[in-house]
Amino acid sequence: MLDPDLDRALYRQLADLLRADIRSGVYGPGTPIPSEAKLIASHGIGRNTVRLAMEVLRDEGLVVTRQGRGTFVLSPDAMKSRQLPVR
To answer: Which end of the chain has the smaller Cβ count within 10 Å, N or C?
Structure first.
């Protein structure tokens, strides 16, 4: 549950929830994260909040977004390859 009274931004709270769901297996490799519309409706938040949360998860290498298709959890191997330092 997101709490607007916390000092932590709502998009970070949403990213925390989704990250925990990914790590616990609620969303496995290759499975889609709920759509923006579903996250907006289920959490009572704005579109920009959802987009910022997805950006955090993409930057962490946990998900990939395919335009027109959705946001999908990456496999552990893909996560590792995205976290390797660039030479």
So the answer is: C
